[in-house]
UniProtKB/TrEMBL annotation, chain A:
The chain crosses the membrane at residues 29-53, 97-118, 130-150, 170-188, 208-229, 263-286. It is a multi-pass membrane protein. It is found in: Cell membrane. InterPro entries: MetI-like, MetI-like_sf. Belongs to the binding-protein-dependent transport system permease family. Keywords: Cell membrane, Membrane, Transmembrane, Transmembrane helix, Transport. It comes from Streptomyces coacervatus. Coiled coil: none annotated. Its main location: membrane. This is Carbohydrate ABC transporter permease. Pfam families: BPD_transp_1 (PF00528). The keyword ATP-binding does not apply. Residues 93-286 form the ABC transmembrane type-1 domain.
UniProtKB/TrEMBL annotation, chain B:
Residues 80-293 form the ABC transmembrane type-1 domain. This is Sugar ABC transporter permease. It is found in: Cell membrane. It comes from Streptomyces coacervatus. It is a multi-pass membrane protein.
From TrEMBL, chain C:
Residues 1-24 form the signal peptide. It comes from Streptomyces coacervatus. InterPro entries: Bact_solute-bd_prot1 (IPR050490), SBP (IPR006059). Keywords: Cell membrane, Lipoprotein, Membrane, Palmitate, Signal. Gene3D superfamilies: Periplasmic binding protein-like II. This is Extracellular solute-binding protein. It holds the Pfam family SBP_bac_1. The keyword Lipoprotein applies.
């Protein structure tokens, strides 16, 4: 296992070292890649900017002022959102954090186990098992929500936190991703070396393979977190108590209040804007783990 | 001897133990509901008389009725064609951009990557209800800042929400929302390639472009296959993008994509049986297309490995 | 019914696997304990904002006395809520009380989801207009819900712009068409209004005003009359206006539509009594510039209107305390204090006739402060609501409407053809389900 750490450490140092220590061979900034990415960022951020700007507009300004002109109502929107049903918005935020955080964590664990097993072992039924797991994504989720409801109702679990959490733990996508990352990041000879040293399979997995899989696993975590955070139909079918709603469902109830009540656009937009902030924070934390330096450090210690 | 046997037993049993949680969850939350949905697809409700009062409604066997109904539904077939056209735009553009951005992120001396990486990924986090409102503000001529600019420049102002441009408008939403996601998949894969693999090529004087084409892309091929596979499935199950634009235009029927048809039958018409049959058909079609692709991709990889 | 051997097997597998050993709550609570004893707690699915405050009045007042506590579970309104209720009902887990739009009642009743509460609602019937009450009985002796709010249709117009362009308020549809044309002549970039295909309720209300009866029964058969003469007249009228370009053909409730109302690009709106709320968000800059008038009529001197929106409170068959739930439903929609609170906290227009002119409705809505007799007029118009006739697959008809009329409005093609498609699809669906259908 130490052989890999030795192998990887200099390579990681090599990439960063080139940027810092050594004198620049050509230019300090690679112009083409940087420019391409900045253009890409502008393309994606332009609509996002709308959400940010719209959240500053009062209901009166939203439909009457120029689209990208900031408004003056952000504080009021925030206050209204806070006041809506005694601050139930924050409860939705908390629920979403719980569903997405715990769900993604469990999902990442399950994906890591499965991906590692599928990548590192040769055993009977491996491909069949993998294909069956994958086939799980073929059935459109919108048709599964009703049977899932009926089945959970038999176990008396509907309208509970578990009813939203449990069906989202297994992610075929996460398993597939974990398998690819495991086979790319964990060399077979390192695992073999661990076995020679007499380590148990579990120990090899947790001490050797897992640290190497971290960049891939944080990616799985990120995707699963966002997927659960944005899921709408499953909680819609499962939950009836709005104290248990996640943010997507809560915002939807603000929008659809029946014909005689106007949709609360400003609240929904401000709510959506605030709901993106935790995701940005998560992303910022997670992108640190994509660095190989950290990985090799973890392996060494 | 005994320790060796025990160890080999441990090795043999280990993969099954590691797969146990996934298997249980799969059985409970995928296999059972899928089985139930398939069962429902062979059922129907039979109402007698006016259908008022209790007991007037019975669930009975439908045989293949729901399937023949779905297969002869011209809207479902049209939806499939529309989605194929849409997929031909979305998949290449989205994955092309994702690969391009991932390679750029991974290149040397590129700046602002924490920011650009986050920015390109961010659309993935905008919830659907807000996206509909947002694209309304950007696409509808009366309120769009782009039309405002076009008008000031005396340029032609195409109707984005009708005919051919509608496909572009919808594809744009998918590309905007999905590129960052796929970029991260490919990028994570690129990061797991040990750098000394390129060091040799660099010493041989290979340009960054050559390194990208000859080394990086082949090495992330499994991730590309993965993103392609899931993009095909996502395309065939396209739902969010047309639902986003639906309230803004008369040109988008509620049955625009096959999955919208399923949703319409299950959630608006309340015919879960018909919807289940349609879902099974879509699943089978997706199976053929996506696993067919996976097979072909695997065969090619094996051939290349053998060469 | 899902209680086949297979699903039971499935259920027990799930239960064992999840470690949910105590399944006692499942299935045993179905017994109809009609006689109340001891405290009862009820759940209520509603989308009405502020309903929790109104329910508090009950829980602290009559509910406390009778030991009946109601808990509000706020839902999103919309087409999918009916499916959600039916899914819950399939699992025998529907809440005790649900809010349901009138046109959804036959669907819910035909799924055996709603309980007959005729003997538990007392003299509630006398508090409502006959046309409103009849929607909750489906023409039978049973009572499936208590009316909550109604949406009598009215004509809204920009008073200042009508004056500016020298237009008079149309009292017949013929005049309405002439007004649209006159406006086009004077200001080609303006529209009187739009024909929108994204809210079927509007078209249904217009047809209802013209005397259409979309679903009727004879014996044990349904008769579908979506393309009857009255509805055809309405479809041809609007189709003609769209075709000649006298009105716009873009959908309502888009940012574009909001802007058109706010900037005076569209100067009138055929809507219902709840319009002030919508206009407040859609066109905030034009506050005080609008006025309300009765809907134009098909022949001069008539006064009939349709309804668009409105909902009722129903008790489900899954409820173990149907009598208690019915008692609450009746209180909520007939008690003076409750109605007052519903008007104030939830902004609904009550179905109960005496509430329409009381308390909260002595002042006009803020948006219409210029029209002091707004609610007096509204109450008078509400009395002229034509009877409506809903059937068990309104959702199918509505879904077809969206697509067929959406395409017809876009292509400016024949609305009658779209109407025929709506009729054909609705009949086909009834037949497919096995309903008795007479041609």
């Amino acid at each position: 296992m130490s052989s890999l750490a030795v192998q990887k450490a200099p390579s990681a140092a090599g990439t960063t070292g080139a940027a810092q220590g050594r004198p620049p061979l050509r230019r300090r900034i690679a112009l083409v890649p940087t420019l391409t990415l900045v253009i890409g960022a502008i393309y994606t951020l332009l609509p996002v900017a709308w959400v940010v700007i719209a959240s500053t507009k009062s209901g009166h300004e939203l439909f009457s002022t120029f689209t990208f002109l900031p408004g003056t109502g952000f504080a009021d929107n925030l206050k209204d959102l806070n006041a809506y049903r005694d601050g139930v918005y924050w409860k939705w935020m908390g629920n979403s954090a719980l569903y997405a955080g715990l769900g993604a964590l469990l999902s990442t664990c399950v994906s890591a186990f499965s991906g590692y097993a599928l990548a590192m072992y040769r055993f009977r039924g491996r491909e069949a098992m993998f294909n069956i797991l994958l086939a799980g994504v073929l059935m459109p989720p919108i048709i599964l929500a009703v049977p899932q409801y009926l089945l959970l109702a038999k176990a008396d679990l509907t309208d509970s936190y578990l009813s939203v959490l449990l069906p989202q733990i297994l992610s075929p996508y996460g398993v597939y991703l974990a398998r690819i990352y495991a086979s790319a990041a964990v060399p077979a000879d390192v695992v073999e070396a661990g076995r020679m040293d007499g380590a148990s399979e579990w120990r090899i997995f947790t001490r050797v393979a897992l640290p190497m899989m971290i960049p891939g696993l944080v990616t799985v975590f990120l995707f699963q977190f966002v997927a659960v955070w944005n899921n709408f139909l499953l909680p819609y079918i499962m939950l009836s108590d709005d104290e248990k709603f996640p943010i997507t469902l809560g915002l939807y109830t603000l929008l659809e209040q029946g014909a005689n009540t106007p949709a609360l656009y400003t609240l929904v937009i401000t709510g959506a804007f605030l709901a993106v902030i935790p995701l940005i924070a998560l992303f910022l934390v997670i992108q640190r783990f994509w660095s190989l330096d950290l990985l090799s450090g973890a392996v060494k210690s | 001897m005994t320790t060796a046997r025990r160890r080999s037993y441990g090795v043999k049993g280990a993969p099954y133990a590691f797969l146990l949680p996934a298997t249980i969850l799969f059985a409970l939350f995928f296999a059972l509901p899928i089985g139930y949905a398939v069962y429902l697809s062979f059922r129907k409700v039979h109402v007698s008389g006016l259908g008022l009062g209790s007991g007037a409604r019975k669930e009975v066997w439908a045989g293949l009725e729901n399937y023949t109904g779905a297969l002869t539904d011209s809207e479902l077939a049209h939806g499939a064609l529309r989605v194929l056209g849409y997929g031909c735009i979305v998949v290449p553009v989205m994955l092309g951009l994702a690969l391009l951005f991932a390679l750029m992120l991974d290149s040397d001396k590129v700046r602002f990557t924490p920011f650009t990486r986050l920015a390109i990924f961010l659309p993935y986090a905008i919830p659907g209800v807000v996206a509909a409102l947002m694209w309304g503000f950007l696409y509808l001529p009366d309120v769009s800042p782009f039309y405002y600019v076009l008008e000031k420049l005396h340029m032609p102002q195409p109707d984005l929400l009708d005919g051919g441009p509608l496909y572009l408008a919808m594809s744009n939403i998918a590309v905007w929302g999905g590129t960052g996601f796929n970029m991260i998949v490919i990028y994570t894969s690129l990061r797991s390639i040990p750098a000394e693999v390129y060091e040799a090529a660099k010493l041989d004087g290979a340009t960054p472009l050559q390194i990208a084409l000859k080394i990086k892309i082949p090495m992330v091929a499994p991730s590309l296959v993965l993103t392609f596979f899931f993009s095909i499935i996502a395309t065939l199950q396209v739902f969010n993008e047309p639902m986003t634009l639906k309230p803004l235009t008369n040109s988008l029927p509620l049955t625009w994509s096959p999955l919208m048809n399923v949703y319409q039958d299950a959630f608006r018409k309340g015919d879960i049986y018909q919807a289940a049959a349609e879902a099974v058909i879509i699943a089978v079609a997706t199976l053929v297309l996506s696993f067919g692709f996976l097979r072909a991709a695997n065969r090619r990889q094996k051939q290349e490995a053998a060469r | 019914m899902p209680n086949t051997k297979r699903t039971r097997l499935v259920a027990s597998t799930i239960a064992v696997a999840l470690g949910a050993t105590a399944l006692a709550a499942c299935g045993s609570s179905d017994s109809d304990s009609k006689t109340e004893s001891g405290p009862v707690s009820l759940t209520y699915w509603t989308w009405t904002p502020g309903m929790d405050k109104v329910v508090d009045l009950w829980n602290k007042g009559p509910g406390k006395k009778d030991q009946i506590t109601v808990t509000v579970k706020k839902q999103a309104s919309g087409d999918t809520l009916v499916t959600k209720i039916l899914t819950a009902h399939k699992a025998k887990k529907a809440p005790d009380l649900v809010q349901a739009e009138y046109q959804a009642l036959p669907t819910l009743v035909s799924n055996d989801a709603l309980a007959d509460i005729a003997k538990d609602v007392g003299d509630a019937k006398s508090k409502f207009a006959e046309g409103v009450w009849q929607q909750t009985t489906l023409g039978t002796d049973a009572v499936y819900a208590v009316p909550q709010d109604i949406g009598p249709m009215m004509f809204y117009y920009r008073q200042d712009l009508f004056k500016k362009y020298g237009l008079t308020v149309p009292t017949t549809w013929e005049q309405f068409a002439q007004t649209a044309r006159a406006l086009k002549k004077k200001a080609p970039d303006k529209d009187l209004t739009t024909f929108s295909a994204n809210d079927s309720g509007l078209f249904a209300g217009l047809a209802q005003q013209a005397g259409a009866k979309w679903w009727t029964t004879s014996g044990d058969k349904w008769k579908v009359g979506i393309n009857d003469a009255a509805t055809k007249k309405v479809a041809d009228f609007w189709g003609g206006l769209v075709k000649e370009g006298a009105i716009d053909n873009q959908p309502m409730y888009t940012p574009s539509w909001n802007k058109a109302l706010n900037t005076g690009k569209q100067i009138a709106w055929v809507s219902a009594v709840w319009a002030p709320g919508t206009l407040t968000t859609a066109a905030p800059d034009t506050k005080g510039k609008w006025a309300m008038a009765p809907l134009p009529q098909w022949s001069a001197g008539q006064s009939v209107t349709g309804s668009w929106g409105g909902s009722s409170t129903a008790v489900t068959t899954d409820s173990a305390h149907q009598a208690a739930a019915a008692k609450f439903a009746a209180w909520l929609n007939t008690d003076g204090g409750a109605l007052q609170a519903l008007a104030k906290d939830s902004g609904i227009y009550p179905a109960a006739t005496n509430a329409q002119t009381s308390g909260a409705f002595t002042q006009p809505p803020a948006y219409f402060s210029n029209q002091s007799d707004f609610y007096t007029k509204a109450a008078a118009i509400a009395k002229t609501t034509a009877p409506s006739a809903w059937g068990p697959n309104v959702n199918v008809a509505y879904a077809t409407f969206n697509d067929a009329f959406g395409a017809a409005a876009k292509n400016k093609s024949d609305f009658a053809a779209a109407l025929d498609k709506m009729q054909a699809d609705t009949v086909a669906d009834l037949k497919k389900q096995g309903f008795g259908v007479s041609q």
